From TrEMBL:
PROSITE patterns: HTH_CROC1. GO terms for molecular function: DNA binding. It comes from the Bacteria. It comes from Aliarcobacter vitoriensis. InterPro entries: Cro/C1-type_HTH, Lambda_DNA-bd_dom_sf. Residues 21-78 form the HTH cro/C1-type domain. This is Transcriptional regulator.
Length: 81
């Protein structure tokens, strides 16, 4: 993916964000279920689907903000290529 972030389609942007959430979550040694529970969810289905952009399931800005706080990272990390 060599496009600038502003040149990405919405689908490509959501896939990038999902991959980055997965990478940063793994780097923090946290499972999808652990992250989901920390976010206040009862199962890992949202995190699992949004990381893969399955059925166009995606994280919203409030969820990304919450994930950034949980992982103790800057929210901008989700938008890096």
């Amino acid at each position: 993916m060599n496009k600038e972030i502003n040149e990405l389609s919405s689908d490509e942007l959501y896939m990038l964000i999902g991959r980055n959430v997965a990478k940063l979550r793994s780097k923090a040694n946290m499972s999808q279920l652990e992250l989901s529970l920390e976010m206040g969810n009862k199962s890992s289905s949202l995190v699992s689907a949004a990381e893969l952009y399955a059925n166009k399931r995606k994280f919203n800005i409030a969820q990304l903000h919450k994930i950034a706080k949980i992982l103790n990272i800057d929210i901008c990390e989700f938008f890096k290529k």
